[in-house]
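Backbones bend. Our protein:
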Amino acid sequence: MQSDGYEVYSRFENVQGIVLLGCMAHVRRKFEHLAADDKNAAHIIETIATLYELEENLKHKKAPPEEVETERKAKAYPILKYLETYMLDVHKQYTPGEAMEKALRYAFAVWIRIGRYVQDGRFNIDNNLMEQAIRPITLGRKNYLFCGNNEGAENNAIFYTFVACCREADIEPYKWMKEVLSRPLLDMTEEELTKMLPSNFK
């Protein structure tokens, strides 16, 4: 499970079978708007950039998970340890409540979760892919106040779920919806309906 530092996710920290990962993009954002006027923030941004450069190189060469894990442990892990030491060292330069101090405190709070991405080549350095997937829902949040009633809200949730599943299955949502709605859905068996789901649709 990968998330930002929202405290509600802490409940999963010690749940058996769940690995809680942090999001480096959220850590980076805390320093981005400070980098122009603070050399420490700028250095932190530059150091994080080297981690993303490694990820891009691995992605470009289409490295398998085993190679990704090996490369991360050899190259990313030392950078993470250096960055942690650097942030601890500069933290004392700021007073509580300063923007930079808040950014550092946020990083410390999620750092253990951040470092876990090096442990498995299938893990991601951030959860940007998920954020991009839910952005339309987030942007449309105020529109959902006008669903009319609970049933309308549930129908909207089902519709958006189907659209998201189509994109995940690399199926054009409109064509899928047009094809599905042309079928006699009320007369179809559960097995037949299951075959119409985006993940099973041909």
User: Anything to note?
Assistant: The first helix runs from residue 24 to 32. Residues 36 and 42 are 7 Å apart (CA to CA).
